[in-house]
Amino acid sequence: MSDNTIKIDSIKIKNKHGDNLNTDLRYNPDSKGLPLVIFCHGFKGFKDWGSFPYLMDTFALQNSFAVSFNFSYNGAGENKNEQSEFTRLELFAQNTFSRELDDLGSVIDYLFEHKNEYNYDTSNITLIGHSRGGGIAILKTAEDKRVTKLIVLSSVNSFDRYSDTLKSKWKETGYFEVMNSRTNQMMRLNYILIEDLEENKDRLDIQKAIAKINVPVLLIHGTQDITVDYSNAEDLYTRHIEANKDYQKTTELVLLDNTGHTFGTVHPFTGTTKAFDEVVTLTLDFIKKIF
User: Which residue ranges form the domains of the chain, and what is each CATH number?
Assistant: First the structure.
């Protein structure tokens, strides 16, 4: 527990396939009607990566009910001491975008089903996602009217980021491998990922989804992001405000200079940075803002 006013409940939420979603709930038990903030990690990520627990602690300390979880097939372990280690690469290989979108839906469903057990306000739900998790958060906001605000950090504007040549080789071999530079693990992605994209084009179209969203949106991106270029954020912002003229005053794009994909933070966490402190301040202000 990071602060004696904050309670952390680690629970397991079942998704519709019967898989566990390892989830942390952070909140002040002495407060009432807390706004819900649900965080989605990105590709090769997990809920306890680097600065994410620090971010969630800060939300809880500032009187939000902060929820973070591991996607069911993110490859991390099941046991508490393995949830930051990729011990189940066979699941990582089978992961799909649709599965992650359904996982997020299961988390939201759980929070509604158990709302009488906690002190949060289900009419005030902010989704926040980093990188690929930003794309998932955008898609869910577009399809789920229960979400009332959206924040994306270093988000992709499309999941179809693979060349035709790569897809052809991928299909031929049945898998594609990526190196995790932090753990030196070779992480396999089965062709089911591309099949999911092709079979669910409309549901997984982030650019179409951002245009459908009619809730306040905050997009934050570093201008030195070499993983996901900041033009992704500019594209998402433009598509949203052009489709929702009434929401131009509630949609914000913040480009942070001299910082990259994780705003200068690393895993294991060695402390915050000036850029990440700015991200924390911007997100807190947006969550609290009444539009």
Answer: 7-158+202-288 (3.40.50.1820)
